[in-house]
Amino acid sequence: MKPKEQHVTVSHPGYSDEFFSEEGVIDDASTTSEMGAELDTAHNTTLSANLEAVRMLGLKLPTDPRWVNVAEKSIEEILTDHAFCEQKAATMGITLIVKFSDHVKLVDEVTPLVAEEWGHFRKVLKELKKRGMALGRQRKDEYVVALHNQMRKGGSREQTMMEYLLVSAMVEARSCERFRLLSLYCNDEYLRKFYYEFMVSEAGHYRMFIDLAKHYLPEDQVKQRWEEMLLVEAEIMANLELRGDRVH
Ligand SMILES: [Fe+2]
Ligand SMILES: [Fe+2]
User: Fold this and answer.
1) What are the DSSP calls for 206-241, one per residue?
2) What is the pLDDT of residue 43?
3) Domain count of the chain?
4) What residues pack around ion ligand 1 (CB closer than 5 A)?
5) Which residues constitute the domain of residue 175?
6) So what's the pLDDT on residue 140?
7) DSSP code of residue 23
8) Which residues of the chain have pLDDT under 70?
9) How close is the Cα of 159 to the center of ligand 2, in Å?
10) Residue 31: inside a domain, yes or no?
11) Which long-range contacts (CB under 8 A, 24 or more apart) does 188-195 make?
12) Ligand 2 center to 23 CA (angstroms)
């Protein structure tokens, strides 16, 4: 039996189920930088701004900003967990390239993403070292495992690709939401800037994965599946303990 890990949690459920976005997929043709700018506009500390930022990402359950107060008490654990999130993003990118290597646009766009995600890993590792902290071992990522478990199997190759792209988009969207909260509410000014940059970058990745799915599959199909996945993601989140030592 694995000993129970010592960790801090927020006493509050951490989510509000009162909020539902009307539209899960952003339809306009705004670019990655515009997406960053939109989040930037919403980069203030009002509750309505938080909800607006989540709406832009399409997520159904906003995280309680008080999560940050708990998270920053275990910053070494958050940074370690974050580093492994970046590693998983890079690994997932490589998996996509290998699995769908005959899809030129996908390979062209995911290849630089892998380098960027690995750059993120290095950045977080550097931050840990700067603080005299160690990377340590990775923890089981229950959130990502749950998202992978709900992927549909047995469809066409294109449909399987859509499952991978939308799960990737979902992880980016939720990471972006959490990084945004860190960029707003962390007491450490340096970390606020640190996480602001991650927020903008992951917003762009979210966008890229959605656009790739729409490039290869009919838009209606992508939108329908994305809406279904958003509901499942909200359910996964609602059932996961909101921990101060985890990014998700
Ligand atoms: Fe990243
Ligand atoms: Fe990313």
Assistant:
1) HHHHHHHHHHHS-HHHHHHHHHHHHHHHHHHHHHS-
2) 52
3) 1
4) 86, 117, 120
5) 73-239
6) 86
7) -
8) 1-54
9) 22
10) no
11) 188/72, 188/75, 191/72, 191/75, 194/127
12) 22
